[in-house]
């Protein structure tokens, strides 16, 4: 294997974290800010680029860092190395309610395509790159844009997504339709396209938008029940207007108080 071999344990249900066990001199890479806690003999290093061991030379590092910027990530990654003489641990936390998905890239053809911001951490040597959508329709209407993250290597990688995660193994020619935004990740063999919902009433009043994402096997796909964008919309919709006060929470009238003063946004 080219990547470090690591052991792990996922802790929790709704706000999960993943505990990584490192042998001496083993390392794990993660996005800046993802650390929850670590043992004293773990050394943290900030590096320029995507954390893979293949990058050598200044221009290769600039190129790998540039790819990360296109996915909305930082120019830098953090490496955590066990500098002790026995096994040690570091733990990384989920950024919002959902599930952490462990992925053994060696069992998935060495490549997984996932939504932007999904990557949490991985064994050192895993390359965190980009995957361009070649179809214009998918880029504009697929819900993930033209650029997605691509994880390449033969080690363990950990991806995070919102809500409950459903993993499906598609047979050759088997196709499913997915609400745009609910797609988390797919193996490289899966054909990713879009399809018009169809029907005026479906389009305007069906609540599913104008397009479905279509996924055709063979391969594996991971689907989330609560995309972060949907969660953010609900939070914003329930937030009191600028300059106003929330009269419902903690009061006897509750939502009725908002109705009486003309604020019926509850």
Task: Write a structural description.
With 266 residues, the chain is α+β, with helices and mostly antiparallel strands. The chain has one domain: 4-Layer Sandwich (Double-stranded beta-helix), CATH 3.60.160. It is 15% helix and 41% strand. It is built from five helices and 19 strands. The protein has helices spanning 58-70, 136-141, 200-205, 228-237, 255-260; strands spanning 7-11, 17-22, 27-30, 35-38, 42-48, 76-82, 88-93, 98-104, 111-114, 119-123, 127-132, 147-152, 156-162, 165-170, 175-179, 183-187, 191-196, 211-216, 219-224. It has a six-stranded antiparallel sheet. A hairpin with a 5-residue loop joins strand 1 (7-11) and strand 2 (17-22). The N and C termini lie far apart (55 Å). Mean pLDDT is 77; it is low at 139-143, 201-207, 247-253 and 259-266.
Instruction: Give the proportion of residues in helices.
Output: 10-25%
Largest sheet: 6 strands, antiparallel
Dominant shape = globular
Measure the end-to-end span: 55 Å
Strand arrangement, largest sheet? 5-6-3-10-13-8
Radius of gyration: 21 Å
Can you tell me the residue ranges where pLDDT is under 50 for at least 5 consecutive residues? 139-143, 201-207, 247-253, 259-266
CATH class: Alpha Beta
Number of helices: 5
**DSSP, total strands:** 19
Average pLDDT works out at: 77
What is the total domain count? 1
| The CATH homology group name | Mitochondrial biogenesis AIM24
Alpha-beta classification: alpha+beta
What is the percentage of strand-forming residues? 35-45%
